[in-house]
Design a protein that fits this description.
Strand order of the largest sheet: 7-6-8-9-11-10-15
EC number: 2.2.1.7
Helix content: 25-40%
Low-confidence stretches: 191-201, 518-522, 650-664
Radius of gyration: 29 Å
Keywords: Isoprene biosynthesis, Magnesium, Metal-binding, Thiamine biosynthesis, Thiamine pyrophosphate, Transferase
Catalytic activity: D-glyceraldehyde 3-phosphate + pyruvate + H(+) = 1-deoxy-D-xylulose 5-phosphate + CO2
Mean pLDDT: 88
GO molecular function, one term: 1-deoxy-D-xylulose-5-phosphate synthase activity
Structural class: alpha/beta
Number of helices: 25
Shape: globular
Strand content: 5-15%
Subunit structure: Homodimer.
Number of strands: 17
Distance between the termini: 63 Å
Length: about 675
């Protein structure tokens, strides 16, 4: 630990129980040291800094007040949990954060008992927390020795914009006594819900969470129960609306939560006092504590940055300057963004939609150029898709740009609201394939599977940035139904790009490198059919095989749906081995090809070998290392081809020409 010895208070805290007897002043010192440790850590590892800095005081207060890990603290989403990891026995490993074999950048159940729920996608904490609270109550009813736990769900103001959060809150009011130990902490760092925090609102929050106030409120409630039903309901509403007028929490009260706030999320004295009050309160029902925090708090470069250092590369702690790698080719995201802008300039029917990811999807530039045609719907992928469907019904040409891993959340809307009605919504699916340091939670491994089974959808996958340029143009011109283009994270290959893309023929692949001129029945040899950017590795493998006298045919499928069946049949008829490669889970493109071969009888005539991601999750690492682990690099392709031919995979072993003869 590079900082061991620098932070006296933090050095004494290995686990949360070490904090329980600290004074508020000591907790303030601990928070200051924890913030400095978090900054120093991320400067060496990269990662999500701004959100973690905003919850330092809240993290300290929660672990000091509640009996974690028995009391459950769920973070929504997990990228704000670096301080939490440091306080829960992981400080000695914190500089392995997001590194190969190191700590996850999100909460993970298998990593620590202090992570009761994995969270790398947003808006799940209240549902999970309610389930835990009800489970504790049911267990306590059957086991008198079991102490019911408090469950605290910390959710950001962005995450609470998703419908699932409101579904959970609505359900909490009807779950009975099990929900009474649920405390939702709304971490508001955008000032988007509450008015500015002042002395009066802070005083009222402390008052409303105090035992005296709660006892008085309980007495009033008991008196109201003696009134006729109509007057009792009126008294209850008067209580809710009186507090709602003061604090702005009426919405949450209507959902059945006892609202407390807003509270200064950086005032340790207030936080500790209010959390203790809520911890010790009885029969309060589910509670929503509204805290106001500042993203990037306590680190000047983060506070002054527009994105508050949400996600950063390694940086200089003193200056805040981020260490940039050598300039490389433009990213796939930027190529998509550039062509979409060009198309929108010529066609005012094109609109762009994203779910809280304008910069991540490259739509921030579209938003500046065409603000009236850009829609950021917040963390609400389901709404984004159906909103796009509605636009499409009226003749607009919507591009719905969502990461592959987040589009999973809107699957029913894709099927029912778009595909079933054959509406021309364009899905720009960013981060398809493996994504590096964000690991399995953000990997775009499944979109080929969950989209490919839907009738009538067109799915494209570019092998390089030029193909993406053309596919973006193609999607803009395609009005026959839903169309998707999936592309990876990271940079392209540095190809020269024309000023404009061209419209491609739907469902038509291409031969990139041909073994020989092929005509007639089986000629033997290897065919490699790639979908997406693995084409570069397929060509490397082709060079390796050619060096062994086994130069293969290499083809770029371009479309997962509709398949280029003529190309597939040609490859199957004229080669002894047919290999498909895709950056997706088993059951995707390779399965589609195999089904076609089986239907035509060609599967009986060719040695078919599908290559896809393994049937397991791949942990965070570099993208190159992940694909090596997945067995989707050039060497793995070469080995697959040699094994299919019945030739040893040693590159020094002489190869027999008879090995490439027709399959018997």
């Amino acid at each position: 630990m590079p900082t061991l010895g620098r932070f006296a208070q933090l050095d004494r805290v290995r686990y949360p129980h070490d904090m329980r007897n600290l004074s508020v002043e000591q907790l303030k010192t601990l928070a200051d040291e924890l913030r400095a440790e978090t900054i120093d850590t991320v400067s060496t590892t990269s990662g999500h800094l701004g959100a973690s800095l905003g919850v330092v005081e809240l993290t300290v207060a929660l672990h000091a007040v509640f009996d974690t890990p028995d009391d459950r603290v769920i973070w929504d989403v997990g990228h704000q949990t670096y301080p939490h990891k440091i306080l829960t026995g992981r400080r000695d490993r914190i500089r392995t954060l997001r590194q190969p074999g190191g700590l996850s950048g999100f909460t993970r159940r298998s990593e620590s008992e202090y992570d009761p729920f994995g969270a790398a996608h947003s808006s799940t904490s209240i549902s999970a927390g309610l389930g835990m609270a009800v489970a504790h109550h049911l267990r306590a009813e059957h086991d008198p020795s079991y102490r019911e736990r408090n469950v605290i769900a910390v959710i950001g103001d962005g995450s609470i914009s998703a419908g699932m959060a409101y579904e959970a809150m609505n359900n909490a009011s009807h779950c009975g006594p099990g929900a009474e130990r649920l405390i939702v902490v709304l971490n508001d760092n955008e000032m988007s819900i509450a008015p500015p925090v002042g002395a009066m609102s802070s005083y009222l929050s402390r008052l409303m969470s105090s035992r005296k106030f709660l006892s008085l409120r309980d007495l009033a409630a008991k008196m109201a129960k003696r009134l006729p039903d109509r007057l009792e309901r009126t008294a209850k509403k008067a209580d809710e609306y009186a507090r709602g007028i003061i604090t702005g929490g009426t919405l949450f009260e209507e959902l059945g939560f006892y609202y407390v706030g807003p509270v200064d999320g950086h005032d340790m004295t207030q936080l500790v006092q209010i959390l203790r009050n809520l911890r010790d309160a009885d029969d309060l029902g589910p509670v929503l504590l509204h805290v106001i925090t500042e993203k990037g708090r306590g680190y000047t470069p983060a506070e002054s940055a527009g994105d508050k250092y949400h996600a950063v590369a390694k940086f200089n702690v003193v200056t805040g300057e981020q260490k940039k790698g050598p300039a490389g080719p433009p990213s796939y995201t930027s190529v998509f963004s550039r062509e979409l802008l060009r198309q929108a300039e010529a066609d005012d029917r094109i609109v762009a939609i994203t779910a809280a990811m304008p910069s991540g999807t490259g739509l921030d530039k579209f938003a500046k150029a065409f603000p009236e045609r850009f829609f950021d719907v917040g963390i609400a992928e389901q709404h984004a898709v159906t909103f796009a469907a509605g636009l499409a019904t009226e003749g607009m040409r919507p591009f719905c740009a969502i990461y592959s891993t987040f589009l999973q959340r809107a699957y029913d809307q894709v099927m029912h609201d778009v595909v079933l009605q054959n509406l021309p919504v364009r899905f720009a699916i960013d981060r398809a394939g493996l994504v590096g340091a964000d690991g399995a939670t953000h990997a775009g491994a499944f979109d080929l599977n969950y989209l490919g089974c839907l009738p009538g959808i067109t799915i494209m996958a570019p092998s390089d940035e030029l193909e993406l340029l053309n596919m973006t143009t193609t999607a803009a011109a395609f009005d026959e139904g839903p169309i998707a283009l999936r592309y990876p994270r990271g940079g392209g290959f540095g190809l020269d790009l024309p000023a404009a893309g061209r419209v491609m023929e739907i469902g038509r692949g291409r031969i990139v490198r041909e073994m020989t001129r092929q005509s007639g029945p089986e000629r033997g040899g290897i065919a490699i059919l790639s979908l997406g950017p693995r084409l570069a590795e397929a060509l490397k493998a082709a060079d390796m095989l050619a060096a062994q006298g086994l130069a293969p045919t290499v083809a770029d499928a371009r479309f997962a749906k509709p398949l280029d069946t003529a190309l597939i049949e040609q490859l199957a008829r004229n080669h002894a081995v047919l290999i498909t490669i895709e950056e997706g889970a088993p059951g995707g493109f390779g399965a589609f090809v195999m089904m076609h071969l089986a239907k035509t009888g060609l599967l009986d005539r060719v040695r078919f070998r599908p290559m896809a991601l393994p049937d397991r999750f791949i942990d965070h690492n570099t993208q190159a290392a992940q694909y090596h682990e997945a067995g989707l690099d050039a060497q793995a392709i070469t080995n697959t081809a040699l094994e299919a031919l019945g030739v040893g995979i040693s590159m020094t072993q002489p190869l027999l020409k008879t090995a490439i003869g027709p399959k018997s």
